[in-house]
Inverse folding.
């Protein structure tokens, strides 16, 4: 029997399902693809977790972050922004000694800063979700179909640039337009 040729950018898993190419059949990636990526999220804790992890991913592979995600959750109080916002210098040192996470002082300090900024956004907009979803692109500005070309063409968008700029104006860090684009695609 001749194998069906799939469009560029799709893989057929062992279960017969077609998926985006980027998970490459790796179990962590595939589970993330199937259960999380591209699914709308309105939960503030999950949004905060995702934007933090995207910041930690900068310069690394997403697979590295996924493999360490449970360690990140434990290290950063399950991404409870109020708890993380209260972290101080001793917590930074504790986190720098934690081999289970990415030990980058700037990213750790950014997470604490961004937790404080998330609380301010929540105060101003009612929730982090209400704030983030204000930047959702109009349906006419989104691709009608997601394929290999669409997903690899440009790692930013007008919406990710706008959200990144606004976050930075509010004091957030490690939220450049490419990082925010990945965050928006996923959430």
């Amino acid at each position: 029997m001749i194998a069906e040729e799939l469009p560029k950018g799709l893989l057929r898993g062992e279960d017969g399902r077609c998926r985006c190419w980027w998970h490459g059949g790796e179990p962590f990636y595939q589970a993330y693809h199937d259960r999380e990526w591209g699914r709308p999220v309105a939960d503030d804790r999950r949004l905060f977790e995702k934007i933090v992890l995207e910041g930690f991913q900068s310069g690394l592979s997403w697979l590295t972050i996924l493999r360490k995600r449970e360690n990140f959750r434990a290290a950063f109080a399950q991404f409870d922004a109020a708890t993380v916002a209260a972290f101080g210098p001793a917590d930074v040192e504790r986190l720098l000694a934690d081999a289970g996470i990415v030990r980058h002082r700037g990213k750790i300090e950014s997470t604490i800063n961004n937790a404080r900024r998330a609380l301010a956004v929540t105060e101003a907009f009612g929730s982090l979700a209400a704030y983030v979803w204000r930047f959702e692109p109009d349906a006419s500005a989104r691709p009608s179909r997601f394929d290999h070309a669409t997903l690899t063409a440009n790692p930013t968008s007008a919406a990710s640039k706008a959200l990144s700029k606004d976050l930075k104006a509010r004091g957030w860090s490690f939220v450049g337009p490419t990082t925010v684009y990945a965050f928006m695609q996923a959430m």
